[in-house]
């Protein structure tokens, strides 16, 4: 068994979500000290948004979790929650930041919009090991298997020496625990959406729009990453667990063509840019 850890857990589905309860309970069951700071209601797809124009409130919510787990419900975004926890609510920094278990996948380019990934990224930005975990179906409500997978991965990564600046994004297929396939390193796949906006009309005949859309998965297309790694989309579709290494660094690492921008010198080659 791993040495007891101080773990901060957040999410974007809110304090009443079953996914965060399963993750917090599994971490506590293993003997870790668990603190939950998460939104007081669902705030999915908020990305890395912060609350700047209104106060942030936090109320204790220990009663929603198992004995020994400290919990706060916060009026802000997922990123607000982790920043508030690290900056004010916790007496000492945690050993690990977890975010999830999200009710739905966070695969491919969806991580840009994900509040789940953003909450974990706040930990990474503060130099802490951080893992985001998602159950790859919006309707699935059996989170115990994903909780076990998340804690196994986190404990193993810590024992092996978690590199600073590395954010791990874990997606677990929505199947019973005994049917979950192997964990594999994956590169981000591509998830495109069609018919993203549904136009409707109110009783006065004025139009309004719901962002809905239907996802179209491309199981092979991917951006960066080792070519012999499967995409996260394909790995989860095949019943396996996708573990994708991410980082907050956004600097372009490819080659740059000459750009007709006044005052900009010739672009360096890719090797120089990486160096």
* Share of helix, binned: 10-25%
Number of helices: 6
| C-alpha-based Rg, rounded | 20 Å
Label the structural class: alpha/beta
Low-confidence stretches: none
- Overall pLDDT: 89
Number of strands: 13
Overall form: globular
Instruction: Describe the strand arrangement of the main beta sheet, using strand numbers.
Output: 3-4-2-1-5-6-7-13-8
For the biggest sheet, the summary is:
9 strands, mixed
Can you characterise this structure?
The chain starts with 5 loop residues before the first strand and ends with a helix. It is of the alpha/beta class and 275 residues long. The protein contains 6 helices and 13 strands. It has helices at residues 18-29, 78-89, 115-125, 144-160, 232-237, 270-274, and strands at residues 6-10, 33-39, 58-60, 70-74, 96-103, 130-135, 167-172, 183-185, 189-194, 197-201, 207-211, 214-222, 241-246. It is globular. Helix 1 packs across helix 4. Helices cover 23% and strands 27% of the residues. Strand 1 (6-10), helix 1 and strand 2 (33-39) form a beta-alpha-beta unit. It has a 9-stranded mixed β-sheet, sandwiched between helices. The chain has a two-stranded antiparallel ribbon with strand order 9-12. A two-stranded antiparallel sheet has the order 10-11.
Please supply descriptive tags for the structure shown above.
nine-stranded mixed beta sheet; two-stranded antiparallel sheet; alpha/beta; 6 helices; 275 residues; 27% strand
SSE blueprint and pairings:
Blueprint: E1 6-10, H1 18-29, E2 33-39, E3 58-60, E4 70-74, H2 78-89, E5 96-103, H3 115-125, E6 130-135, H4 144-160, E7 167-172, E8 183-185, E9 189-194, E10 197-201, E11 207-211, E12 214-222, H5 232-237, E13 241-246, H6 270-274
Parallel strand pairs: 1-2, 1-5, 2-4, 5-6, 6-7, 8-13
Antiparallel strand pairs: 3-4, 7-13, 9-12, 10-11
Helix pairs in contact: 1-4, 2-3
């Amino acid at each position: 068994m791993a040495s007891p850890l101080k773990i901060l857990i957040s999410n974007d589905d809110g304090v009443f979500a079953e996914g965060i309860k399963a993750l917090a309970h599994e971490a506590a069951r293993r003997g870790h000290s668990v603190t939950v700071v998460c939104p007081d209601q669902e705030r999915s797809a908020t990305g890395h948004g912060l609350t700047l124009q209104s106060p942030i409130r936090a109320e204790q919510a220990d009663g929603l979790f198992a004995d020994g787990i400290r919990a706060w419900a916060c009026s802000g975004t997922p990123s607000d929650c982790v920043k508030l926890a690290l900056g004010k609510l916790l007496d000492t920094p945690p050993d690990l930041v977890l975010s999830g278990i999200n009710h739905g996948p966070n695969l491919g380019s969806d991580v840009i919009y994900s509040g789940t990934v953003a909450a974990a990224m706040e930990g990474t930005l503060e130099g802490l090991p951080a893992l985001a975990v998602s159950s790859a179906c919006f309707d699935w409500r059996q989170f115990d298997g994903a909780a076990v997978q998340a804690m196994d991965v986190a404990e193993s990564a810590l024992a092996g020496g978690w590199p600073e600046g590395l954010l791990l994004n874990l997606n677990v297929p929505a199947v019973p625990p005994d049917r979950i396939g192997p964990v594999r390193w994956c590169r981000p796949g591509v998830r495109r959406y069609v018919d993203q906006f549904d136009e409707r009309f109110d009783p006065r005949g004025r139009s309004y729009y719901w962002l809905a859309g239907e996802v179209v998965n491309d199981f092979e297309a991917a951006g960066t990453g080792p070519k012999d790694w499967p995409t996260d989309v394909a790995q989860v579709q095949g019943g396996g667990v996708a573990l994708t290494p991410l980082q907050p660094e956004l600097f372009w690492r490819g080659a740059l063509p000459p750009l007709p921008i006044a005052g900009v010198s010739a672009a360096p080659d890719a090797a120089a840019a990486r160096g």
